[in-house]
What does this fold into?
Amino acid sequence: MKPSLILALSTLFLPLAATAAAPALETARAEYREIPLEHRLDGVVEAVNKGTLSSQTQGQVLQIMFDVDDSVERGDIVIRLRDTEHQTRLTQAKAELSAASARLDEARKEQQRIAVIYEKKLVSSSALDQADTSLEEAISHHKTAVATLWQANEQLEYTWIKAPFSGIVTQRHIEVGDTANPGQRLMSGVSLDKLRVSVNVPQSLTPTIRNGGEAKIILPDNQMVKASDLTIFPFAHSGSNTFKVRLGLPENISGLYPGMFTKAAFLIGKQKRLLIPQRAVVFRGEVTGTYVITEPGKISFRYIRPGQKSEGGMISILAGLDAGEMVALDPVAAGTKLKQQTRGNDGE
It folds into this structure.
């Protein structure tokens, strides 16, 4: 083949080779940065609103509207007691109030009439005193009738057991047909609207937490949320010498339920750690690593030991990397380039 033809062919394929060249990998430098120093402890999720409904009047259980694991809204009637006797008392109380109102009206008119006559000196002062006494008695009787009616209404309302908050029924303590007595437990439940985390903190760590006053809760998906409030009990547990700390959770947190174990991270200072972006870390079963740019155009896979995740999408590296080393931010592209690099070395 003539040299001129070879030169022409090589010139023809040069643009194709340049077009096929792989784009440069996006990289980041491993750097030491100051991050919050956290102490992590196990905690238990609790419901802020939880309780047991008790009967406030006597009556036979007529109907149970909800059972265990059912969701209820605040104000829902959960249990109905037979109210026949209470309805009768209410009717009697209304009749007594009506009679008392009539007597009061009559006594007031009589007292006014006697007072007018007394001013004209047509009756004695004893007659006026008697009219005043009768009016006072009528007023007192009317107040008693009003209180009796109010009590009868209240007792009737007690036959409709209502949910004090929205939540889930956790236990039922009575059956249809049973007789409920005042103070008897009827149904228990918890609310999922407001949750908190309870943590037992070692005595040595308590002063630092009191001064710092900041903590985060680690959710099941490893996301962290800042505690809405921090309550440290002023006394230690006698057996373990730990202080109970309550961390408030923001509302509408999904994936957490009362009784679940979780972790709380308490801010206790600052520390310097070697950080790289989380997206540069590769998890392959039990192996964790990252793609390191060893020199221009050269790449290798390095085993690393990661630490805690930090804000801004960063993660600390405990072993396997040195400060200043460059890591690939796209593990898929870096893995592809490493395979091409390996094939090229094998073909040499």
Q: What stands out?
A: The longest helix spans residues 84-119. The CA atoms of residues 43 and 199 lie 4 Å apart. The helical segments are 3-19, 84-119, 125-157, 206-212, 331-347.
